[in-house]
Each structure stands twice: as C-alpha cells, then as structure tokens.
C-alpha cells in the first residue's frame, strides 16, 4: 500500500502524542455467517466517541465475531460472510475504495491471550504495528512513539531501561500491556479489546483497567468481558449479546451500563447480570 507519513512535532511532549481524534463507531443491522452457520443477526449498536462500551454475554453468542467485524478481521476467514454496515464517524469501513490497512490503523485490536512477538525486542514490538499498517516514521518519531505508547499502556516505568530485551521475557500482564502499546502506536481512533484480562492475575487486571480508564478520553474503546464487575468499573455503555438455542446471536439490550445493571429491561439480561445463567 501507499505509505502514510507521520507528522509528530518533535516538541510535542511524549505523553500527550494525540490519537487521530475521537470517532464514533456504529454497527447497523450487522449479520454474519460462517458458511451456512448464521452467527449474528441484525446487530445495531452505536459505540460513542470517547466512551468505553462493554460487550457481555455467554460464550458462543458472537461477541468475538462482532469485534472482528469492527476492524475487518472477519473477512480473513474464507467462509465468512457479512451483511449490514459498519460506520466509523459515518464512513463505511467496508467501502471497497477504502484500504483495509486504513481500517486496521483506525481500529486497533487487543486479544485475550497476550501475543507479543516473543523474540522481538520490546521496542520493536511497539513499532511492529506501524510496519504492518504501512505507516512510515523517522527515528525521532519512532523513539517518541515507543515512549508515549508505553506510557499510555502503563508499562514505561517498568521497561524504560530494557527496551532492547525480548518481549517474551515479560510477565503475562506486562506482555498484555505491551500489546496495548503496540495497538496504540499507530494512534487508532478505536481500540477493540477481546477479554483482555481473562488470562491475567488480579493485579495485572487492575493495572489494565486503570489504563482503560485513562485511555478512554483519547480513544473510543470496545471491550468484551465475562466479568460483570469489570464491565461496571470500566464501561459507560453496555450491550448484552445472547444466542438462544440454535439461533444466531442478537443484542438483547444495550444502553447505559449503570442503568442496565441496576434496572435491566429484559428478564434475560437480568438473569445474566445477576449470575443466574
Ligand atoms: P463469543 O466470542 O461470544 O464466545 P464467537 O464469536 O467466538 O462467540 O463465536 C460465535 C459462533 O461462531 C460460535 O458458534 C463459533 O463456533 C462460531 N465461529 C467463530 N469463529 C468461527 C470460524 N472462524 N469459523 C467457523 N465458525 C466460527
Ligand atoms: Mg469470544
């Protein structure tokens, strides 16, 4: 693809290198299939700019599939099909004239299992996303991006003296924060997180929750979580996904997290948030 030059002023303090501006992500009547298996049915959801939206619901109801649709990873599966629209600030993410690398740069992803490149240095791990999405940057910009991304991911103080050490030598929680730094380095407008703390201990989980809270004003966040307390702590908006026996996943209810947890409108939501299934 065509390289895209970074324009970071050398005088910008590292901690405040901005993202490319807040963006609203909107799914409109999104349906998905794997072959003949219908896994999502007409999901419509607005994920407001600068807020954290939590996706909750039992396993297998299509949360990960939905998240992957939001940055065009869904189309990497040969049997996958899609209907509906995903709009990033009103622009169709699947517009054929829009490059997929642009979509991946605008909408970053962090997975359940920390997946840094283990043999690659911490520094190179942070910078890896730039290459993958066709962003060109000079040495000074790179150094600044490494520092600012690690600061934003809450990892800088722990690794500043060993940026050339392999990413695989970090603890699980540190590796996940390294993956967050890698996602942030391309300065996405939206950050998707698929159960980012499920593989981590409570301390690392807390650190990442704090990081999410700090990032939320700079980047729109969508997080899948099975932990209701976590959804309540980190999100302002919440969507409850459910796939009833043999049927595709749907959004049963969505809205303000506090309201949904205290006064759920649907009895299935109430049963789920109160731990009755
Ligand atoms: P969740 O994240 O809510 O647990 P998923 O999105 O992973 O749910 O899965 C939704 C449904 O889609 C499941 O029935 C799952 O088996 C199916 N599925 C997910 N990924 C694929 C794939 N790559 N190929 C075929 N089926 C898949
Ligand atoms: Mg999942």
Automatic annotation (TrEMBL):
GO biological process entries: phosphate ion transmembrane transport
Swiss-Prot/TrEMBL keywords: ATP-binding, Nucleotide-binding, Translocase, Transport
Entry GO MF terms: ATP binding; ATP hydrolysis activity; phosphate transmembrane transporter activity
Residue stretches making up the ABC transporter domain: 25-273
GO cellular component terms listed in the entry, alphabetical order: membrane
Name of the protein: Phosphate import ATP-binding protein PstB
């Amino acid at each position: 693809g065509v390289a895209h030059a970074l324009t970071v002023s050398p005088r910008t303090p590292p901690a405040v290198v901005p993202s490319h501006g807040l963006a609203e992500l909107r799914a409109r009547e999104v349906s998905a299939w794997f072959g003949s298996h219908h896994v999502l049915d007409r999901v419509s959801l607005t994920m407001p700019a600068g807020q954290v939206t939590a996706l909750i619901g039992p396993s297998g109801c299509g949360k990960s599939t939905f998240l992957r649709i939001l940055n065009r990873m869904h189309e990497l599966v040969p049997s996958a099909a899609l209907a509906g629209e995903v709009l990033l600030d009103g622009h169709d993410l699947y517009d054929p004239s829009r490059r997929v690398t642009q979509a991946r740069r605008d909408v970053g992803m962090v997975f359940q299992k920390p997946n840094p490149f283990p043999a690659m240095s911490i520094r190179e791990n942070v910078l890896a996303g730039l290459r993958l999405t066709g962003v060109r940057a000079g040495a000074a910009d790179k150094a600044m991006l490494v520092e600012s991304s690690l600061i934003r991911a809450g990892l800088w103080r722990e690794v500043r003296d060993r940026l050339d050490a392999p990413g695989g030598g970090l603890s699980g929680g540190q590796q996940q924060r390294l993956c967050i730094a890698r996602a942030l380095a391309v300065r996405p407008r939206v950050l998707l997180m698929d159960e980012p703390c499920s593989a981590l201990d409570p301390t690392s989980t807390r650190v990442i929750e704090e990081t999410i809270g700090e990032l939320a004003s700079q980047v729109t966040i969508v997080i899948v979580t099975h932990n209701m307390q976590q959804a309540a702590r980190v999100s302002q908006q919440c969507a409850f996904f459910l796939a009833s026996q043999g049927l595709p996943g749907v959004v049963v209810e969505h809205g303000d997290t506090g309201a949904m947890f205290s006064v759920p409108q649907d009895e299935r939501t109430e049963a789920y948030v109160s731990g009755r299934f």
